[in-house]
Automatic annotation (TrEMBL):
Protein name: AP-1 complex subunit gamma
PROSITE patterns in UniProt: GAE (PS50180)
Family (UniProt): Belongs to the adaptor complexes large subunit family.
A Gene Ontology BP annotation from the UniProt entry: intracellular protein transport
Annotated membrane topology: Peripheral membrane protein
Keywords per UniProt: Cytoplasmic vesicle, Golgi apparatus, Membrane, Protein transport, Transport
Length: 817
């Protein structure tokens, strides 16, 4: 068989390929020749073939068939074979292939080889791809080489020990004795790898961290020698002595000095020396200064040293290199909370970064600028940020607008300034603001009683200039509807009032209704505003015509509003002034997120009982009114929404009552007799008690519903320690041949009870009684009255939706007495 081509010739041949297909053809041809050579056990050219295979692997072609050949090369006695074999093992093998375990014995033999270069190859391979099993078997050999006097082997053994510790952390203590003399080594390679090993051990074990804190003076001495040493061509990089070792030592000092006063005190002086003596004209010096800053900010350093670190970051902001500026802004953003005043000194430089062309720098500068805003600089900073908002790319507008809203809400010097600032945001970036900005601004305007005339005049002017910003149009429509009379009367004292007639105001609002720029939500705001003006303006006939036109609108929401407003004019005109009077001052709600809403089968359910009284979960009005009338009569009052209780006295009246005025006697519903101190949750305070007592065994089960193959059975238990609570478990079974899907069970009780409906076990009732759906109902009956319940069942059977109502009155006396 002819000798295979050399690696150099293969590379030259592949580079001559003009197309990807031609290259693939060359690779496939060469792979076939290599496979044939492997099958013939050709020891002469195995090394050459594996080398070519590794080159193909680096080009992205499969080379897994060379794994065993790598092991044969490792077992060879030639150094050239071992070198290619170990390189192949590092590239082609990892823990996922069991083949790598076959190398363990070869690596063990080579770790004890007489030639240091063979030992070095074995250490490199173990440190690169050794599995946890290999590390356990070979840790002893690595530890021996860590104690040797040979610097070449010690530095490789230290890096291999790092890999062993990462794979098998419990072997960390094995290397502890060997680390004692590592820092006394003069060789920089050994020092570097030793610091890496110590860093790994400190990060993984608090005990090791305490043990190595005594090495801080030695590390400080090494770092000082590096700074003060003269020119050394072997270690010099751009005029700085071994910057790689300096950076590693600074990182280790940061870990050792964190949360430790003594260690931090010992390194304060050397950190100050590094910060002042390092040359900043080259990138190498900036890298060391950056690590120094991170170390200063992370340990318990002196205040003067922290100011020095922040000043270094301030100098970074003036650097022409964009990467350095970005790093400085990111670091300042992390430290602004702890050293706010020191960072404030560089405010002008930070604001200048908002004009940078690089989008990453602009984003970091924007975030840092908002972090620097306080009550003293709010006016100046908002001026700069609003200018940035005007000119920035669309990707920044949403975050910038949100930041301005939050800062203005927190630090506004006056209500007028607050309103002006938010209106400026709406006029420049209205399409990018968050959804909650409209109700928040409306609440702010409503609560600023003395600013109503000024605000409605400003918003009216803004509306004349631009109707493309929908949030601005919505706020303007709302305010004109509320305070249109102030606009027409010209009562503004803050600025010169404008002369506006009622017809002009109505023209603007009608224009919004027909504008192509208006969204359905905006049209709803405009129609409501026009309706409100019917009690503030004299042009009632014109308003009636506008409202009646939209009674046949294609938009269902707009149509419903118009129909309801027409009904107000025709049937309830005497109530219209009271219904459309001005909104009262709105209470400020918590701004830390929406109230959590938990729903099961259409009922609002409190969260898991807690011994502390959490706030009662509230249900929005639209969800409450979406609950269908379970009684089918007019006596249902769907008042399900409850406000967040601020006083214990209101907790007893906040019942999830679906029956409204229906009472057991048929007369007016009696007032709930729940004690004033009753907590808002039915089973509040029971989490540490046994939930049920033995009386439940005496309550017989009952069939509550049986129709069309669906059977609902109630079983009863009594809560302990509160005997007023009955726990009812429903069991829904299905005797038909098809599953009942989308099963929903709803229940309602009279006002004198409280009902809590928990989540069902499933929404599918299996056919032929092959399972059941269970659901728990908790009923609080403080007056011990006879229990009555209306249930509503909704499900889909054989593709058809089914709904049914039933009344359950035959509850066992033991369940409610």
């Amino acid at each position: 068989m002819p000798a295979p081509i050399r690696l150099r010739e293969l590379i030259r041949t592949i580079r001559t390929a003009r197309t990807q297909a031609e290259e693939r053809e060359m690779i496939q041809k060469e792979c076939a020749a290599i496979r044939s050579s492997f099958r013939e056990e050709d020891n002469t050219y195995r090394c050459r073939n594996v080398a070519k295979l590794l080159y193909m692997h680096m080009l992205g072609y499969p080379a897994h068939f060379g794994q065993l050949e790598c092991l044969k090369l490792i077992a060879s006695q030639k150094f050239t074979d071992k070198r290619i074999g170990y390189l192949g093992a590092m590239l082609l093998l990892d823990e996922r292939q069991d083949v790598h375990l076959l190398m363990t014995n070869c690596i063990k033999n080579d770790l004890n080889h007489s030639t240091q270069y063979v030992q070095g190859l074995a250490l490199c391979t173990l440190g690169c791809m050794g599995s946890s099993e290999m590390c356990r078997d070979l840790a002893g050999e690595v530890e021996k080489l860590l104690k040797t006097s040979n610097s070449y082997l010690r530095k490789k053994a230290a890096l291999c020990a790092v890999h062993v510790i990462r794979k098998v952390p419990e072997l960390m203590e094995m290397f502890l004795p060997a680390t004692k003399n590592l820092l006394s080594e003069k060789n920089h390679g050994v020092l570097h790898t030793s610091v890496v090993l110590l860093t790994e051990m400190c990060e993984r074990s608090p005990d090791m961290l305490l043990h190595f804190r005594k090495l801080v003076p030695q590390l400080v001495r090494i770092l000082k020698n590096l700074i003060m040493s003269g020119y050394s061509p072997e270690h010099d990089v751009s005029g700085i002595s071994d910057p790689f070792l300096q950076v590693r030592i600074l990182r280790l000092l940061r870990i050792l000095g964190r949360s430790d006063d003594d260690s931090s005190e010992a390194m304060n002086d050397i950190l100050a020396q590094v910060a002042t003596n390092t040359e900043t004209s080259k990138n190498v010096g900036n890298a060391i200064l950056y690590e120094t800053v991170l170390t200063i900010m992370d340990i318990k350093s002196e205040s003067g040293l922290r100011v020095l670190a922040i000043n270094i970051l301030g100098r970074f902001l003036l650097n022409n290199d964009k990467n350095i500026r970005y790093v400085a802004l990111t670091s300042l953003l992390k430290t602004v909370q702890t050293d706010h005043n020191a960072v404030q000194r560089h405010r002008s430089t930070i604001v200048d970064c908002l004009k940078d062309l690089d989008v990453s720098i602009k984003r970091r500068a924007m975030e840092l600028s908002f972090a620097l805003v306080n009550g003293n600089n709010i006016r100046g900073m908002m001026k700069e940020l609003l200018y940035f908002l005007d000119s920035c790319d669309p990707e920044f507008k949403a975050d910038c607008a949100s930041g301005v809203f939050l800062a203005a809400e927190k630090y506004a010097p006056s209500k007028r300034w607050h309103i002006d600032t938010i209106m400026r945001v709406l006029t420049t970036a209205g399409s990018y603001v968050r959804d909650d900005s409209v109700p928040n601004l409306i609440q702010l305007i409503t609560n600023s009683v003395e600013m109503h005339a000024y605000t409605v005049q400003r918003l009216y002017k803004a509306l004349l200039d631009d109707i493309s910003q929908q949030p601005l149009v919505q706020v303007s429509s709302w305010c004109i509807g509320e305070y249109g009379d102030l606009l027409v009367s010209g009562q503004c004292e803050e600025e010169e009032p404008i002369q506006v007639t009622e017809d002009e105001v109505l023209d603007v609002l009608e224009g919004l209704l027909v504008s192509n720029l208006s969204t359905p939500v905006t049209r709803g705001y405009s129609l409501t505003a026009i309706m409100k003006l019917s009690t503030r303006f004299s042009s009632v006939n014109r308003i009636k015509k506008v409202v009646s036109i939209y009674g046949s609108s294609i938009d269902v929401e707009l149509q419903q509003r118009a129909v309801e407003y027409n009904a107000l004019f025709k049937k309830y005109d005497h109530m219209r002034p009271a219904l459309l009077e001005r909104m009262p001052i709105m209470e400020k709600t918590a701004s830390n997120g929406p109230t959590e809403i938990v729903q099961t089968n259409g009922e609002t359910e409190p969260s898991v009982p807690d011994t502390k009284h959490p706030p009662l979960v509230t249900q929005p009005a639209n969800q409450a009114n979406d609950l269908l009338d379970l009684l089918g009569g007019n006596d249902v009052v769907p008042v399900i929404q409850t406000t967040l209780p601020t006083k214990p006295a209101s907790a007893g009246g906040e019942l999830l009552d679906l029956l409204g005025d229906l009472s057991l006697s048929g007369g007016p519903a009696p007032a709930p007799s729940v004690p004033v101190s009753q907590p808002p949750f039915l089973l509040d305070g029971l989490s540490s008690q046994p939930l049920f007592n033995d009386i439940s065994a005496a309550i017989p089960p009952m069939t509550a519903y049986s129709k069309n193959g669906l059977k609902i059975e109630f079983t009863f238990e009594r809560a302990n320690p509160n005997p007023n609570i009955a726990v009812i478990t429903i069991h829904a079974t299905n005797t038909t041949e098809d599953d009942m899907t989308e099963f929903v069970f709803q229940a309602a009780v009279p006002k004198t009870f409280q009902l809590q409906l928990l989540s069902p076990s499933s929404n599918i009732v299996p056919a032929l009684n092959h399972g059941s759906v269970t659901q728990v109902i908790r009923v609080l009956n403080p007056q011990k009255q006879q229990l009555r319940m209306r249930v509503k069942l909704t499900y889909t059977h054989k593709g058809s939706p089914v709904q049914d109502l039933a009344e359950v009155n035959n509850f066992p006396p033991q369940s409610w007495q």
